[in-house]
């Protein structure tokens, strides 16, 4: 029954409502247009997001003719708020771009530096997911759940890869303050266990305040055939476009979105987060870019000469004093160039030319976006922040580089040079998941030591960036050297656009920002001003540091990034060799003076402990590979049987049934039509590791792709006749499985097992695997039933999508994890005790 208001009450309500617009907009900072009209706008104080719904300010009578309409003012940003283009590249060290002394041409960054300010002293967290979480939230990475990458998440607040609701992103804040918001490229901030079609989607870009997302979920992506999403829907734009590459495809989509937003509403500013995959492995430039770099001969003299050239360039640019010393080449770990064989030199030059081509190609495509801003007349009114790298250059290719980065994460760190040379002409193509040798990585971090992952070394955390904003920066072509951190970027953006950080979002009180605005450094009179903070901690997988007023306390590196299965430090807080540097006089971290300042070392250690406790760094964990393999929440947790009755594609690895380090049985009930059948029944992974269960010329096949190094196939010898059949693959695993990870032991992973292929209950093939995949399948590929979405596990047998032409009645996966006996536990406990001793 509809409730009626008495006419007297209606009159009173109407009378009051005439004055309510003033009440409704009293908290607005600025208003335009006739109050209550469709064209009325208002800025909001932003302390509460979304803003409260204004009280109706019109007049309501019993009929529309005697009533007065009223529209809530449209929320707009403060007047003259610029657009924002936030760019962050991947795995690129200080010495990569030409803007900061590198030899790789970066004409886009060079031009922006001439139009703005070059910042030489901004810092990352030493790893990708953590840096990106800090960037978009303005908080330290542990403080937003990203102590490590999402694939290594553990069940502690600082490490669970969940950005909690009390820490809204810059996208959310700007969206609710009237900006159009978007995110292009890498999204490594959705938990790997929440990346499926079933959601939840609150940790996806569209759930974090970004209205439009075009990119990939995870740490890296095949640029030729990426696991690409538009918002939360998988898309495959490359399928019918030979030569399509995500580096260009992403720029095209960003240009399209920016142009569309400007055409629809040119008065509404936009915020774009642009995060290309370059230069994270796989290094996938187009052949044209490889040819351009190859013709330049930049690397023919080797990595020692490259380091010398970059260092000389940096001094010529005035980035460092002429008498600056840097660490000597680490010859005990990475050979000097002249010690290499001719084959090694040939391979390594090919590796780095492809890396440099990928990097230059990415900068070129960013330049197309900048040109698009100019074409629509928005360049002068856009704050552009171009950050080179989310950490230092990656050395995860190991000392020899690799044609398959997936192999590295499964403990295969040195594929022989002669084997790699077989792929020389394919390097950078869709047939490689390539990474270069660590020798180049050391040179590209010049003048700083070490690499990505090493949070205690400047080579891991020291980045650079340029900021351009023609309407707001008059001190063009200058440089700033103040200490900054990526947590300072969000506060700076809010400061520039005139928006305060909210106090509540969706009714949830917000934690304060950890960063500080550096917008004051845009003014020439503040060129030598103090940095926005005096203390900053760093920690990554048990290696840690503290910066304090130019002093840098660092732990000695105890694990190189390519060492994936070393026994972890049992006490990473205290079981360390400590180093101390005065970066004011020794900016390259070359002269350890810890012995001369024991009191400062002691005091800075205590400061680090306070910062670590404040920002959720504890409990510290120095493990690497064991964390990749540990169980974490997902839709498969606790389940031992999975049943499917129709085709399904695109389920990410983190949310699909895992058959690693366990016994399992996969049973397919199918009906073969007259004339035979072919196609994929089930696959997970792809060209660089994974498995497939399929029909080939009506014969059943089960295949394990072992890191693209070899393929093991079980196959029936006879074609299946028309009719119903039950095909089964049973695998008996001989190891102890993931239970050993509780003891920080990999001993139970990747062990042997025997596979048996059966048709209608009869064995048709049986083989033993001496080793199995220990840690992870190809993470940018999916779990697919009924077809294969991206790359195939065996190019010799089929090409995706390889749709199943038989009728699938039922597919069942049953897993039977190993059981740990008391004797097994005792043995593992003893081994852990010996390791800690």
TrEMBL record:
Tell me the keywords, alphabetical order: Calcium, Hydrolase, Metal-binding, Signal
Polar residues bias (residue ranges): 29-46
GO molecular function annotation:
hydrolase activity; metal ion binding
The source's domain of life comes to Bacteria
UniProt domain Sulfatase N-terminal: residue ranges: 82-499
Q: Which family does it belong to?
A: Belongs to the sulfatase family.
Q: Which organism is it from?
A: Cribrihabitans marinus
Traced from the root, the source organism's taxonomic lineage reads: Bacteria, Pseudomonadati, Pseudomonadota, Alphaproteobacteria, Rhodobacterales
User: Where are the residues of the annotated region Disordered?
Assistant: 29-53
One family from Pfam that matches here is Sulfatase
Name assigned to this protein: Arylsulfatase
Q: Where is the signal peptide, in residue numbers?
A: 1-28
PANTHER family, A to Z: ARYLSULFATASE FAMILY MEMBER, BLL2667 PROTEIN
């Amino acid at each position: 029954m509809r409730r009626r208001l008495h006419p007297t009450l209606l009159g009173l309500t109407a009378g009051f409502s005439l004055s309510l617009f003033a009440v409704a907009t009293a908290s607005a900072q600025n208003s335009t247009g006739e109050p209550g009209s469709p064209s009325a706008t208002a800025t909001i104080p932003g302390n509460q997001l979304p803003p409260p719904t204004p009280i109706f300010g019109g007049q309501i009578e019993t009929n529309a003719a005697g009533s007065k309409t009223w529209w809530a003012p449209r929320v707009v940003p403060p007047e003259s708020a610029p657009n924002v283009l936030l760019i962050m590249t991947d795995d690129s060290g200080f010495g990569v771009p030409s803007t900061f002394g590198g030899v790789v041409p970066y004409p886009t960054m060079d031009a922006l530096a001439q139009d703005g300010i070059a910042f030489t002293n901004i810092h990352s967290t030493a790893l990708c997911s953590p840096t990106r979480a800090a960037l978009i939230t303005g908080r330290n990475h542990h403080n937003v759940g990203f102590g490590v990458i999402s694939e290594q998440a553990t069940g502690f607040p600082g490490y669970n890869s969940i950005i909690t609701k009390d820490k809204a992103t810059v996208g959310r804040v700007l969206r609710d303050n009237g900006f159009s918001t978007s995110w292009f490229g890498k999204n490594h901030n959705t938990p790997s266990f929440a990346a499926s079609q079933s959601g939840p989607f609150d940790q996806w870009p569209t759930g974090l305040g970004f209205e439009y997302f075009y990119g990939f979920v995870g740490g890296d992506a095949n640029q030729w055939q990426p696991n690409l999403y538009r918002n939360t829907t998988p898309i495959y734009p490359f399928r019918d476009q030979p030569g399509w590459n995500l580096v260009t495809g992403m720029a095209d989509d960003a240009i399209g979105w920016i142009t569309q937003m400007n055409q629809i509403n040119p008065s509404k500013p936009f915020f774009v987060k642009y995060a290309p995959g370059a230069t994270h492995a796989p290094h996938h430039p187009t052949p044209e870019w490889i040819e351009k770099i190859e013709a330049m001969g930049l690397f023919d003299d080797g990595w020692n000469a490259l380091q010398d050239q970059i260092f000389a360039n940096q001094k010529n640019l005035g980035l460092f004093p002429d008498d600056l010393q840097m660490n000597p080449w680490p010859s005990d770990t990475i050979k000097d160039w002249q010690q290499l064989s001719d084959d090694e030199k040939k391979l390594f030059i090919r590796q780095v030319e492809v890396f440099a081509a990928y990097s230059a190609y990415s900068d070129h495509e960013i330049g197309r976006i900048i040109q698009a801003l100019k074409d629509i007349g928005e360049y002068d009114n856009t704050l552009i922040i171009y950050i080179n790298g989310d950490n230092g250059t990656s050395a995860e290719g190991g000392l020899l580089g690799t044609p398959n980065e997936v192999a590295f994460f499964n403990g295969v760190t040195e594929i022989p040079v002669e084997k790699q040379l077989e792929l020389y002409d394919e390097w950078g193509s869709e047939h490689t998941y390539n990474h270069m040798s660590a020798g180049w990585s050391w040179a590209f971090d010049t003048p700083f030591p070490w690499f990505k992952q090493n949070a205690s070394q400047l080579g891991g955390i020291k980045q650079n960036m340029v900021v351009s904003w023609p309407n707001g920066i008059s001190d063009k072509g200058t440089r700033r050297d103040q200490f900054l951190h990526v947590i300072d970027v969000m506060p700076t953006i809010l400061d520039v656009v005139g928006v305060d950080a909210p106090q509540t979002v969706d009714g949830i009180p917000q934690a304060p920002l950890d960063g500080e605005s550096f917008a004051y450094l845009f003014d020439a009179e503040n060129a030598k001003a103090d940095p926005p903070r005096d203390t900053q901690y760093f920690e990554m997988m048990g290696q840690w540091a503290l910066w304090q007023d130019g002093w840098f306390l660092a732990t000695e590196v105890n694990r190189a990034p390519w060492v994936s299965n070393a026994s972890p430090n049992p006490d990473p807080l205290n079981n360390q060799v400590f180093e101390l540097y005065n970066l004011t006089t020794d900016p390259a971290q070359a002269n350890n003076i810890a012995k001369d300042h024991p009191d400062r070392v002691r005091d800075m250690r205590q400061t680090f402990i306070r910062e670590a406790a404040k920002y959720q760094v504890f409990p510290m964990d120095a493990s690497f590979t064991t964390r990749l393999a540990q169980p974490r929440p997902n839709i498969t947790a606790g389940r031992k049987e999975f049943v499917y009755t129709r085709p399904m594609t695109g389920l990410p690895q983190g949310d699909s049934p895992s058959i690693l380090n366990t016994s399992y049985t996969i049973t397919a009930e199918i009906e073969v039509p007259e004339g035979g059948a072919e196609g994929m029944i089930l696959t997970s992974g792809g060209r660089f590791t994974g498995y497939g269960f399929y029909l080939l010329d009506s014969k059943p096949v089960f295949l394990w792709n072992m890191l693209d190094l070899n393929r093991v196939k079980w196959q029936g010898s006879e074609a299946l006749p028309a009719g119903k059949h039950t095909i089964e693959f049973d695998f008996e695993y001989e190891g102890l499985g993931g239970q050993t990870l509780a003891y920080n032991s990999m001993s139970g992973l990747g062990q042997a097992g025997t596979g048996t292929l059966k048709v209608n209950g009869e064995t048709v093939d049986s083989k033993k695997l001496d080793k199995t995949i220990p840690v992870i399948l190809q993470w940018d590929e999916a779990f697919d039933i009924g077809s294969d979405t991206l790359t195939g596990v065996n190019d010799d047998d089929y090409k995706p999508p390889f749709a199943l032409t038989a009728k699938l009645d039922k597919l069942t996966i049953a897993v039977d994890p190993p059981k740990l006996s008391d004797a097994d536990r005792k043995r593992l406990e003893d081994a852990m005790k010996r390791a800690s001793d």
